[in-house]
Amino acid sequence: MFEKTTVNLKILRERAYNLRWATVPEGVIPLTAADPDFPSAPQIAEAILNFTKERYLCYGPPDGLPYFKESVAKFFEEKRQLSCSPSLLFPVDSAAFGIYLICKAFLNKGDEAIIFDPVDFLFRYSVETLEATAVPFQIPAGSNVVDFEKLESLISKKTRMICLCNPLNPTGKVFTKAELMQLGEIAVKHNLIILSDEIWSDIIFAPHVYTSIASLGGDIAQHTVTVTGFSKSYGLAGLRIGAVLASNPEHYKKLIDASLHNSTIHGANVIGQIAAATALNHCQQWLGDFVAHLQQMKDLCVTELNSIQGVQCTAPEGCYVAFANITGTGKTSTQVHELLLNQAKVAVVPGLKQWFGEGAEGYIRLSFATSEEILKEALHRIKKTLNSK
Ligand SMILES: Cc1ncc(COP(=O)(O)O)c(C=O)c1O
Q1: Which of 50, 80, 157, 368 could disulfide-link to 297, CB 3.0 to 4.6 Å?
Q2: Which tens digits make up the pLDDT trace of 289-315?
Q3: Is 245 exposed, middle or buried (0-12, 13-18, 19+ CB in 10 A)?
Q4: What is the distance in A from the centroid of ligand 1 to the CA of 215?
């Protein structure tokens, strides 16, 4: 299922955008945006065909198809141990929009939101688009100690929210239950909303285990708004589908009002909802095989990166990206990015503020959601280029 032969480069070159195959020059391997090189599970195509064969593609309910809502609620109850009613969640047209929507519902102009550093650009982008201020909080890679006293010291009278990205893209850190408890207690003490982005929560490498912060229950759950998506685990990025989950009717109302779904100005398309519900209900074997493949690619990627002069990479605990420190090469992340693109013919994401915040300088990020053959070829080229500099 996850071999070289399943990667259809002809189709990817026509369809894979966002810095990937369709956007890079011929011959370049794009280990850029975290989007798998593999086709999605066959059950998803089958469900879409079944749904569309009568050719009725009517308006759906503004708060989502019942099948979608029930499937997501069941997933969170059974797989994430949190109490979740279908009436407190609704689909959104991507996790990216879900992040923005939560910020829109709970932040006003001039407010402050704490975001991790480094972290995916979507958090800063959403906060700043709403004319609020993003306050960065450094999170070390791997199991290094998170300074929660520092987190508390960043809270001011204007702080309204802590943006939790767990697992953390780009470092791949998976927060422990104890860490989440500390973060949750600080949020409760200061009456802050916890925006919990869980889009990566299926991609966890043993022995690490995933905890949803809302599963800690009580006040912590009541302060949490969760967002998830289906792009990473199931390769459905082009369908633009995700979900937001409130912990109480008051938060739900704020979210659905801010979404503009009731006016039909926005909404999540029904095909995406069918695909996502099918993924949760019928593609768990596929997901398990995908994660097993990723575990092997992670080991390969980290070992190879650490064998390159001037490069150091802490193994990610989750996510299918490797975040490698390149300061030992004596070059900036932009210089390494350009060198790899022009000489190795491999595209990576440079650790720039615009992608991951200030804490990312000196790093590059590589996605390893591809076949072993493609990954080996890319790493071989990277190694040859950097070792000869
Ligand atoms: C942490 C995080 N949240 C959200 C997203 C966006 O996902 P979607 O494709 O559902 O918008 C990404 C995509 O890279 C991500 O890494």
Answers
A1: 368
A2: 999 999 999 999 999 999 999 999 999
A3: buried
A4: 22
